């Protein structure tokens, strides 16, 4: 079962590309989100929660 799906998900803050064309499918179960400082983890979560709008690309409907 797919829980989260994105396609080409991109978020820019001005000229800074925080998330660059993320396409992923995440299934049920425990999933970790790991990355260096500034990798875009919080940006992704905010997009998934609807707290931010994508610059381009798709989120789950
Ligand atoms: N509101 C904002 N305005 C401008 N740039 C931002 C904003 N929020 C985040 N950024 C920038 O976007 C990039 C991704 O930031 P984000 O906070 O998503 O990373 P992160 O993976 O959560 O980092 P951390 O591990 O430090 O929490 C960074 O370069 C950050 O400086
Ligand atoms: Mg963060």
Task: Describe the protein's architecture and organization.
15% of the residues lie in helices and 44% in strands. The protein is mostly beta strands and 61 residues long. The longest helix has 9 residues, at 41-49. The protein binds adenosine-5'-triphosphate (ATP) and magnesium ion (MG). The site of adenosine-5'-triphosphate has 11 residues, from strand 2 and helix 1.
Strand content: 35-45%
Q: Give the termini separation.
A: 15 Å
* Proportion in helices: 10-25%
The distinct ligands, each listed once, are: adenosine-5'-triphosphate, magnesium ion
Radius of gyration: 11 Å
Work out the helix count.
1
Poorly predicted residue ranges: none
What is the oligomeric state here? single chain
Mean pLDDT: 95
Global morphology: globular
Could you state the order of secondary-structure elements as H and E?
EEHE
Helical/strand content category: mainly beta
Query: If strands are numbered along the chain, what order do they take across the biggest sheet?
Result: 2-1-3
- Strand tally, please? 3
Element layout with pairings:
Blueprint lengths: L1 E12 L2 E12 L13 H9 L6 E3 L3
Antiparallel strand pairs: 1-2, 1-3
Bound molecules: adenosine-5'-triphosphate (ATP) and magnesium ion (MG).
């Amino acid at each position: 079962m797919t829980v989260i799906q994105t396609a080409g998900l991109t978020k820019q803050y001005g000229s800074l590309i925080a998330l660059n064309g993320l396409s992923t499918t995440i299934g049920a179960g425990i999933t970790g989100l790991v990355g260096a400082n500034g990798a875009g983890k919080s940006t992704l979560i905010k997009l998934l929660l609807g707290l931010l709008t994508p610059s381009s690309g798709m989120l789950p409907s």
